[in-house]
């Protein structure tokens, strides 16, 4: 064991010479490493803008009003979600109306088939689900809009 503490020594496992793919001609160590303790200063530099003549440049400082966000563009997916929610709710309400009309006909006519009755049962299950799905889609779209707003 040496008299140098382990915290003062460089661990040889991290030496690039012992890493796979090391090539001394490619990985030559620079003579003076740059100082990495200094934090670079963030400075806003003015942008050069070309005048009418190609050789003449003038310096333009950014306008403070330019940093305002651009207005939002039309999002077709969001409009599609709104339309889909309206279609689901409308289809559910029309199905409920159809069920009520069909049930009246089933009660008044004596010669009904089992197929008509089973179809009304399927519609009875599907109609509330369509309304709920439409309302859930509209609610999710509202949450999506709320999450985008700052």
Plain-language structure description:
The protein has a domain at 76-148. The protein has 2 helices and 2 strands, in the order E-E-H-H. It has helices at residues 76-108, 114-148; strands at residues 47-50, 57-60. It has a two-stranded antiparallel sheet with strand order 1-2. The chain is mainly alpha-helical and 150 residues long.
SSE layout:
Layout: E1 47-50, E2 57-60, H1 76-108, H2 114-148
Antiparallel strand pairs: 1-2
Helix pairs in contact: 1-2
Brief rundown of the structure:
The protein contains two helices and two strands; from the N terminus they run ββαα. It has helices at 76-108, 114-148; strands at 47-50, 57-60. A two-stranded antiparallel sheet has the order 1-2.
Count of DSSP H/I helices: 2
Give the N-terminus to C-terminus distance in angstroms.
61 Å
Query: How much helicity do the residues have?
Result: 40-55%
Low-confidence stretches: none
Topology as a string of helices (H) and strands (E): EEHH
Structural class: mainly alpha
Gross morphology: elongated
Q: How many whole angstroms does the radius of gyration measure?
A: 36 Å
Mind describing the biggest β-sheet?
2 strands, antiparallel
The proportion of strand residues reads 5-15%
Give me the count of strands: 2
The overall pLDDT average reads: 75
Strand order of the largest sheet: 1-2
